[in-house]
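#struct-pred
JK: can someone run the complex with nicotinamide-adenine-dinucleotide? inputs below
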Amino acid sequence: MAQAMPLMTASADLRARYPEGTVYIDGAFIVSPSRLTVYGKQFGDTICDVGSGNADVIDAAVTSADKAWPAWRAMAPSARAALLYAMADRLAAEMDQWISLEAHHAGKPLSDARIDIVSAVMTLRWFAGFADRIDGRVVASAETVHRYIRREPLGVCGLIVPWNFPLLMMVWKVAPALAAGNTVVVKPASLTPLTALLFAKLASDAGLPAGVLNVVPGPGEAAGMALVRHPRVTKISFTGSTEIGKQVARIAADTVKRVTLELGGKSPTIILDDADLEKAIPASAAGCFGHAGQKCAARTRVIVSESRADEVVERLAKIATGLKIGDLSDPATQLGPVIDTKAQSRILGMCQDAQKAGASLVCGGEAPDHTGPYVSATIFDQVKSGDVLAQEEVFGPVMAVIRVSDEDAAIAAANDSDYGLAATLWTRDVGKAHRISGQIQAGTVSVNTPAVVGIETPFGGYKQSGYGRELGLEGLDAYLQSKAVIMDISS
Ligand code: NAD
Ligand code: MN
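RT: done, structure tokens with the ligand placed:
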């Protein structure tokens, strides 16, 4: 396909390293009994076939990780840190190729893909810095007793990753897991397995010992579930939909695995009547429409004081209709396609249903005239908090504006959700900012900035957005367990 060429050419060197039909186990690409085809998300062009694993392949990967674990956990922590830094350096050195490949196979504009790869490098470096800074503590004891607490790795961790940030979500898990001394098996999403496989090879080239990082793509019900069931996997870290997350937790309970769940969201932006609209408006548009709304923490509900609502809606619509829709290979593109035509139909169907139910469409709600599964940036006004559009995750560029009379109504609307991943608040009143931040039921509250993710701060859900945290020191703790050592030293 001619139109897809610029991205394919830019990432050709990377793809040339990948032998088709393979998975990555024990430091090598291994031919798998079955395959799945990876497509470019704009034009549907075939990129390559990757290996697809079943329970036997997952067992081979877990066995390899299990075999690698004793030496990996015994390695000097500073040596583990050096390997993580080396992986980051290699990724940084090949930045442009990785950006092109991720853009192509995950369907994201180059500008979004750049943020992902830059963040992956920073995340590797941040956790590398903790590999040799993990300590325990000595506990108050009688003179004849010595008691202390060690923090130890868990063993083999199963890491299940979604398609919206394929490499970045993998690195959020791999970096702390390896820094803490665990070995891992990664199950990438079937739509986006390629950068995960190539990253495993990059890690080996950087010196990571065989078996420490294994990657097996495959269907969720087969490969994913085999990992969740496997008796020698001690922890599952899952990022994906709430529905699958619940299944994962149920099955993981059979073998009492530790579980981290990063699930869906319906996160709000709250614009109070004293908000600085010059900043709040563009930030609210970006918070919702970035990566075509396919972000777990997309702020898809805009809760706004009635007194400012007309102006806010008008200005948001101006941005939404002005976003540059374009090819993934065009650096100027602001709004790319959604992941596939199935998602496009689902999103457009939800927009039609909302209109039938009486919602007030301000802009969008249709497929723009551009090759690929695109959805126009869409805004619905006058949405009521109980409406489907205010309750269900759309996972597309669709914003629901909820008008409220006062601050208390804003807080009530923000918390009227089964989800609780993130929230953004706009106000110039410092007291209100602190007070409301304490009242919002979400794992992250950002004030006067759309940024809800920082490597240094924990990220994760309240309520049905999940449990456990990634990033920050909590993200490292998620891959450690405590051991108490109690010693009689009386003689
Ligand atoms: P998904 O739940 O369909 O798939 C996620 C991963 O789980 C994939 O690798 C998939 O193959 C695997 N999987 C599917 N069925 C499985 C099973 N039965 N057992 C084990 N593994 C299985 O989600 P998706 O469609 O890839 O991603 C979109 C969802 O992810 C959205 O709901 C979004 O909100 C969520 N998400 C959350 C975060 C977060 O940090 N909270 C980040 C990104 C995406
Ligand atoms: Mn899915």
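RT: quick notes.
Residues 110-131 form the longest helix (22 residues).
The chain has a mean pLDDT of 96.
JK: thanks, will look after standup
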